[in-house]
Amino acid sequence: MFEEVSKILVVDDETVNLELISAIFIDSPNIMILTASDGLEAMEVLKNHTPDVIVLDIRMPRMDGIEVLDALKSDQSTSHIPVVVLSGDEKERKNALKHGANDFIPKPFDAEELKLRVLNNLQVKKYQDLIKNINEVLQKEVMKKTKELREALELAREAEYEMVVKLGMLSEFRDEETGQHIRRISHYSKLLAQLAGLSEFEQNILFYASPLHDVGKVGIPDSILKKPGPLTSEEFELMKLHTVIGGKILTSDPRFITLHAGKIIAEQHHEKWDGSGYPKGLKEREIHIYARIVAVCDVFDAMTSDRVYRPAFTVEQTLEIMKKGKGSHFDPQLIEIFFNNIDEFIKIRETFRD
């Protein structure tokens, strides 16, 4: 059985870049490279082809990259296609993200980094398509109301969770974390939601969506993600963009409840109760309850785990530090519930050890 061919559209007015990027994928037989020398030509190509990823230059004659982005994201038939922008200007890259770009590559680009970023976005697209297809099939099957359907629903839910975990791991394995971190966050979040009085429906939403909290890290360079020392202010500004990138990746039809909740969590889990977080500086109950719950769970797991820049803290040290964030970093009610039930969270940590 032949593996499906993935299409990558490269749009750049510099012929040498089109040739170089095409050459980067010459050893990938299941990837077809389509090229366009400017935005207008790209729109013509899109009339006959639906690419899986678009690599897009910003500065081009006739129709520049921002105009192409606006056209792509306003059209339902192309809005779901991941777009990786090429630019040597930081302001241009941030502007492109605001207009719907999913990722960026600085110019002049490193060939290996470009290939890895494009392949990462291609993998994310495949998982999104798979989850979407599963949900569409289930919506049709639910009309049958049979025992066979109930069994299929249970299996599909388990499969969805595994796909969400794998999607989360696309970023985590580059951050030297494991699938166990993803599973711990999932179980922590459901437990804290239960203790906070959320409905069983919302507990399950958090269980399935919380693993997607850091998926936007696929768009952060390894030089920042794996840096053994503290980040510079410029590097930290780039790191903060993983919340924006995660939201772009997970943007979908609201009917896909897991992806919609994952988008909220990815965008808001670094917001803080006192408004000093990012990316939007939301405060108190402006921050969605899902994100407030994941914020507590993510900090606890991060601090009690080894990182490239420091060894793990003990549980006692971690709790002492987290107490100082009550009412500033964390929702004061949620953190109090967490402290009062810490033994249950430690049991989860022991069950899903790295």
Key phrases:
354 residues; alpha/beta; Rossmann fold; Hypothetical protein af1432; 2 domains; five-stranded parallel sheet; 15 helices; Sig_transdc_resp-reg_receiver
Any idea what the radius of gyration is? 21 Å
Alpha-carbon distance between the termini?
36 Å
Overall strand count: 5
CATH superfamily of the largest domain: Hypothetical protein af1432
Which assembly state applies to the chains in this document?
A: single chain
Mean pLDDT across residues: 87
Q: How many domains in all?
A: 2
What's the architecture of the largest domain in CATH terms? Answer: Orthogonal Bundle
Spatial order of strands in the largest sheet: 2-1-3-4-5
Assign the CATH class of the largest domain.
Mainly Alpha
* Secondary-structure class: alpha/beta
Keywords: Coiled coil, Phosphoprotein
Organism: Thermodesulfovibrio aggregans
Pfam families: HD_5 (PF13487), Response_reg (PF00072)
GO biological process, one term: phosphorelay signal transduction system
